[in-house]
Structure formats: C-alpha cells, structure tokens
Specification:
heterodimer, B: 13 helices, flat
C-alpha cells in the first residue's frame, strides 16, 4: 500500500516534469486504461488469487502429460483401482490407467472445448448483438424476437439435438453444439451496450462529421465494448465447461479412450460405492475452474468499468 | 397495465410458433429412420403406409401445420416407436415426477437460499457472511453429479443404517429428499447470491437511512423496507433458475433412476423416437416461455417503473 502511494506520487512528479519539457501526449499515455485496470485488478485479492488458481490449472493440464512418463491408455489390470498414493497421486481406474495423467489430459480437452466454444460464442454473440443494436428499428426488433424464441429453447435438449444432427461427437461438433445452445446472452448484452454507446456525443459528432457507418461501428462502438467482452469470456467459460461435463456425463461426450473431466466423472460414478475418489477428483477440477473464472470475471468487472458494478 | 399484459401475451404467440418451427427443423435435420432400427428391414409398402400415417409423405410446411395444430390442441402426436402409445401418454406418465422434483427443488432453493442471502447481507464482512458465501460458492462450483453421488454415497450407502434414504427410485417422501437437494442446490446458490447483492444495494438507499433516523427499530426497518424492496429483483431470477432446474433434472433423474421426463428424453434420443424427443422439447419450451411471461407480468405489478420501459 505504502509503496503504491509512493510510486503514484513519483509518477505524478515525473509527469509534471515531463509535461514541462515534453508534449502532453506522452504523459497521458502513462496512465492508460489498461494500466489503470491492471492496477485496480491487482488490488482485488480474490481476483488475484483466482487468476493464480486459473493459471495453476492451465499449467497442470499443459505440463503434467509432458513430464509424467505414463501412458494414459495403457491397460494393466494388476493395477486396477489403486487408491491415491505417491506413485499414483490421483489413483488408477478400473483398467489400471493412471488417473493423474488422464485427469490432466481430460482437462486439456475440457478447457480447450471451453475456450473454443467461448470464442465462438463471443464471435456470434458480438456480431449478432452489435448488428442488431447498431441497425435499430425494425431490424433490431426482428432480430430480438428471434432471440426471444431461442431463449425459449431448453439448454441441454438444444445441445443434445444439435449433437444428434451431427450424428457423432468429436471436439468440433461439441464446440458447435455448446455454442448454438448458449450464445444468446452475449448477443443481448452486446446489443444493450451498443445502444447505450450510440447515444454518446462523440458518436453524434462522428456522424455529423460524415463518418461512414462501419467507421463508427469499428472505431467508436466496438472498441468501447472490449471490456464487457473480456468479462463475458470469463462468465461464459464456466457455463460451457459445465455444459460439456453434463453432456459427457450423460454419455454424449467425447468418445473413449479420450476423456474429458465430464467423462472421467462418469467413469467414477459407475464405481462410486467402492472408490469415491474417482468421481471426486475430476469434479473438483471442474469446480476449481468454475470458481476461479467466476472471481476473475468479478475482478475484471470492477477493474475495467467501475460504473457497471452489480449490473450483470 | 392491461395494455402491457395484453401486448406481452400477444407477443408470445409468434415466439411459440418460432420455437416449434426451429425444433421441427432440427428434428428433420437428424439423419436416420426410426423404423429401420429393428433387425429386419421394413418393406417399402409398409414404409409408405407408415409415412402416410405420420404425414411424412406431405411437404414440410403441411407437417409443420399439422404439428402446430396438435400442440395447440394439446396433442403431441404418436410415439414413432411404441406403436400403441401417444407422446401425451408418455408425458402424462413421466412429467408429474419431474414437476414434483422440480417444484420441491425450487422450494428447497427458496427456503435455504433466501435466508442465506439475507444473513450474508445483514452481517456483511463478518464470519456469518463469509460462512454463508463459502457454502454458496462451494455449491455454485461443484457440479450436481458430484453432489448427487456424494449424497448417495454418504446417506444411502455409508450411513444406511442410520438414515432412511434409498439410493434410487421415486417411491415416497424418504426417496425424494436426496434428489431434491441434489437438484435444488444450484438454484439455491444463485438465489442466495442475488438476494445478497440486492439487499446490499437496498441497505444503501436513502429511505433506509431515513427509516433509521426516525428511530424505527432495526428489525422493523429490515422487515418493512429492506426485505420487500430486495426480494423483488429476485423474481427476475426465476427464468435462469428454471434453466438450472431443467438442465439439472437430466442429470439428477439419470443418477437416481427416477422415471422423469428428462431421463425419458435421453432414452428417446438414443432410440431415435423423434416425435417423443420433439414433444418433450416443445413442452419444456412452452414451460420456459410461459414462465418468462408470468415473471414479466408479475414484475410489472411489483415494480411499476418497468412497465413503461417495456411496452
């Protein structure tokens, strides 16, 4: 805290000194939005811990399969259902496969599907929402009614039917199914953002100066929504990871021997009476990811736009 | 107010038509023929007769109109696989279980979630708050298949001598407890969080300070001013809560082996009984749409400020 104040004070001193000798532009750049946001984010202890936890999980799924010398698919019945130990930190499953490396690999698939689907949701949602809000009038009304109808569809059945249409489950069909079933919230929020931003004086000014619509959209409106988009990445990610886990748990996930956290939990469920640790570990991994993403989103919200606090 | 309600109700009709249309098209996109799943191939003449019986020989818009007519006359059509049963029969058999499960889970969410949120807000930044929020965050983060499995593991297996709860089935009140908690915990955490947030906001309002300043007892301030004004926003949470309930019921019904509609949906997808899959999807959609309608109207009553904005 004290060092914070001191560096702030020093920064002010340098700024004044520089303002005297140089152009003002250089001094303003020092207190950029990003720097400001980072500063506020780093003061939110829960968010910092969550960001660290998130990175730990990403590091776990990235590095464990590289450094651990164990074949994730090697079957050895003499080692079936070993409880967690030093040799096997997460134990083994019914085929004697090492669950430590399988959990990490499953996490890779869960997190990769999570990020890919989140990215797709952002893409579809932002484009749809921005167009709807920007167009306004009848177009906007029609697009929103369509969204209302989509909101009426239940999430899991929608995703399951989409998977059934593809007729097979792999990484990409899973991403598409999850995206199709959950892009509406982002679209709706983006529309609201664009409509609010459209009313700003600088947009009117740009209009009056004869700026084309795409310049207004890409130069003035979309950049101002980046903060909200970033927050929504971390709000959508847990939902998508959980959605994938639900589908895998219901037996509509990635095909074995590949695994995700959801299908590992499903494996554990079939043996829960004698070996409860098998379902607990992948479920805790899901919980870890969900909670860290949630607190990161919370911290980002406070950091990027203090005005929108408690708005979502 | 009446104008607002009428307008809102009229708007739901095209939404319902659109939902049915989308479900209808998605079902058409699924490849495979339910009559060819059996071991022996179906002769062409019988296939033609079956097609005629289910209007499959007509153009898609006629099929759609037949279906819409069916939906509005509460007839979801025949099951494609179980020749002697309608989708209505299946819904009648399995839906009450899901309704009861969902209703009790919602009750659990309200009875546990609202007090948790209220306590956390009134005792903000104390041990009470932290304990309540720890419960809420843990419940929020842990997937319901873990909660369900752990409930069964401890209460129905490990301590089965001391507790009356069975591992599965839907046979009486003692068999309802574990599934209801497993399904209700997720909406409970959502509700607790919303109530806490909205309480904290209300507590900062000027009228609360006024009430305190004029010497009203704190208990009365909370009961009269804070609770009333903070629980109204919680009504808007009904829609996401319903979503949690429906998605969760698929998992919970599967784990506890309950004869509910969610589990039957999964069976119908696996056996390609499209008319059942579609019927259940349309039914769930209707519930969601009607719930949204009711929430909007209710909110218009509770908070007059929203009326003008939405009409």
């Amino acid at each position: 805290m004290l060092t914070d104040r001191r560096s702030e004070f020093e920064a002010t001193l340098t700024r004044t000194a520089e303002a005297r000798s140089q152009e003002a532009g250089a001094a303003i750049a020092r207190a950029s939005l990003l720097k400001d946001a980072l500063h506020r984010f780093s003061r939110n202890r829960a968010a910092v811990v969550a960001a660290f936890a998130f990175l730990v999980m990403v590091a776990f799924v990235t590095f464990v399969p590289i450094f651990r010398d164990a074949d994730p698919n090697a079957v050895d019945f003499s080692k079936a259902f070993l409880s967690p130990s030093l040799d096997y930190p997460f134990g083994t499953d019914e085929f004697g496969r090492d669950l430590f490396v399988r959990t990490a690999l499953g996490g890779r698939i869960s997190i990769a599907i999570g990020f890919a689907a989140t990215f797709a949701i952002m893409l579809v949602g932002v484009v749809y929402g921005a167009l709807s809000g920007f167009a306004g009038g009848r177009v906007d009304n029609g697009m929103m009614r369509f969204l209302d109808a989509l909101y009426g569809l239940p999430y899991l059945p929608f995703a399951i039917i989409t998977l059934a249409i593809f007729g097979r489950v792999n990484f990409w069909t899973m991403v598409v199914a999850l995206t199709v079933a959950s892009w509406f919230t982002t679209a709706r929020v983006m529309r609201g953002q664009i409509i609010t931003l459209k009313e700003n004086d600088y947009v009117r000014a740009a209009n009056a100066l004869g700026a084309r619509w795409y310049r207004i959209l890409f130069r003035h409106l979309l950049p101002n929504t980046l903060g909200v988009i970033l927050i929504f990445v971390f709000l959508e990610l847990p939902g998508v990871v959980l959605g994938e886990a639900f589908l895998s748990f219901l037996g509509m996930g990635i095909e074995p021997p590949k695994a995700s956290w959801g299908s590992l939990a499903q494996d554990g469920y079939t043996a829960y009476q004698a070996h409860p640790y098998i379902i607990v570990i992948p479920s805790l991994c899901i919980g870890w990811l969900i909670l860290s993403a949630f607190f990161i989103a919370d911290g980002l919200r406070d950091a990027l736009d203090p005005r929108t606090r408690e708005k979502f | 107010m009446l104008k607002f309600i009428v307008r809102r109700i009229v708007w739901t009709i095209p939404v319902i038509l659109l939902v049915i249309l989308m479900t209808f098209f998605m079902m058409r996109l699924i490849k495979g023929n339910p009559f060819q799943v059996t071991e022996r191939p179906v002769p062409a003449a019988i296939q033609a007769n079956l097609d005629r019986k289910f209007h499959l020989d007509q153009p898609w818009y006629m099929q759609y109109l037949y279906y819409v007519r069916g939906v509005f006359t509460a007839d979801l059509g025949p099951s494609l696989l179980q020749r002697d049963r309608d989708v209505n029969d299946i819904v009648k058999e399995h839906f009450p279980v899901s309704m009861k499960l969902g209703g009790l889970a919602m009750l659990f969410a309200i009875v546990v979630g609202i007090p948790l949120g209220v306590i956390a807000a009134l005792k903000q930044n104390t041990a009470w708050d932290y304990a309540a929020m720890a419960v809420v965050n843990a419940g929020y983060a842990l997937p319901n298949f873990l909660i369900a499995t752990l409930l069964i593991y401890f209460f129905a297996v490990k301590w089965r001598e001391e507790t009356p709860f069975p591992t599965n089935g839907w046979t009486g009140p003692s068999s309802w407890v574990l599934p209801v908690i497993a399904l209700g915990h997720a909406p409970m955490t959502v509700l607790a969080r919303i109530v806490r947030g909205s309480m904290l906001e209300t507590l900062q309002q000027d009228y609360i300070r006024t009430a305190k300043a004029k010497g009203l007892r704190w208990r009365r301030v909370v009961g009269l001013h804070v609770l009333r004004n903070s629980l109204i926003p919680a009504v808007t949470a009904a829609a996401p809560l319903l979503g949690y309930l429906i998605a969760g019921s698929f998992i919970v019904e599967t784990i506890f082996g309950l004869p509910g509609i969610g589990r039957y949906f999964i069976i119908s997808v696996a056996s390609r009984d499209y008319s059942v899959t579609m019927g259940i999807t349309v039914l769930l959609s209707m519930i969601i749409i009607v719930a949204n309608l009711v929430v909007d109207i209710l909110y218009g009553f509770l908070d007059p400020r929203t009326r003008d904005v939405r009409t």
